[in-house]
Model the fold of this input.
Amino acid sequence: MSGPRRLPGDAGDIVWRTLGDAEFVTRATPVVEAWLAAGRSEPRLLVALDDELQQRLLLARARSRRAGVPNGSAGLRALAQLILMALEHACAQGVATMSTRALRLAGVCALFSLLAGEPVATATWQLAHGVYARAEAGGNVAAVNELGLADAALYVRMLLLSTLSGNGMSARQIDKCFDWMEEWSRGIVPERAFDAQRHYFGVDLGGGAGLVPVRGGPGGAATRYIGHAQLAERIASARSEYFRQISVSTLGEYDTNPLFEYHDALHQLSRYWEYVAARMAGRDTGRQRVDGVLVPALAGYDACIAAARTGSIESRWALSDLSPTGAGFRVDRSAPPIEKGALALFADPESGAWVLATAVRVVPTGEARDVGVKRLADHWRVVTLLPEGDAAGPASSPAAPIAAFFVFGDESRGLADSLVIKSGSFDPDGGYLLKPGAETFRVRLARVIQSAGDWERVGFDVIKRLKA
Done:
């Protein structure tokens, strides 16, 4: 008779918390792979690995947030996917709280995908939907369990990540939104019965995607719906609180003060959910269908700078719809390539003013491309950031001038002046001379507020106003 089965590396004897990340991944991976191959796991060790992984992922997020740049953590991400599958198998075996652990980890896996600039994997969505459907069938998903968590709230938080895709938020903003979503999701349970007055979003538990707008009435039996009213109220409340804190100047452990970025993220989310609320209330959202109107438009950072300097846009895009937040176009496929996230310029057909925007949707459709752009700024001008050494002569500084868009702020909404620069140009260590109008200022680039594709919107600190 054989003795008790030993796991790879005697896993039950390992003190996991004493290992570095690389060794943790190296030693835990074969353990979980063995479980998956056997179709069974050891619940106590699985719980220990999940708890340890959660702590390490939290630390990776904290390091990334402090630095303001995405953290690699590729090894931890790969292990997370394996542990997620093991948790899902444990759910199917009816092990207590495993659905909660699986939904919590699925949300973190989805978050790390967005932080890396990747879409959430279809397999991750499918696994989360399956775990939630099983939990829903087995009991009260709104109840807070011994982990202090509720399955419904964790699932809704993951679903809300769908609303962040393609909006140009920085990694720090997305990460912070995920924390907020934990609070915003409490008490919200996906509903089976469709109410046209309350439900803008739905999710197919049998599908491989997150939330999608409900179009043409209710879906099938596997569709669940999310009420928007509580979310809109909670987001508006959070925005008011950060508006109050925006004057806090203490940086603490952060390389740059993140409050500006967080307030900007809340501003974007607040506008989005206000739009949702207006649509659900049947109010005019300002979106107009437009057919057959060709307007000057182009995409690409360098092309936008060149056009702004010359005052001429040669290309024409066919406008299909227009709203206060953006526009939709049909662009011939023979036109230059358009990348999702690219900076764009287009002429407002009513005022003729040029709008600074970003491409958030690029979909090939036959002989054309369906391009959706989101407005970044209506009031801006092109400026040149001169490295401070240039004031003493070109030979004194090796840095090149930066061509940028100066975006005028809006004090009524708590939005400060900012700069849109080309991706990769951000340098918080150098000083620059900036002349947005009649006066010249010595400034320092302080923080990345928003980024996508080939551009970054950055905040700056005025060091000194120079005499004329």
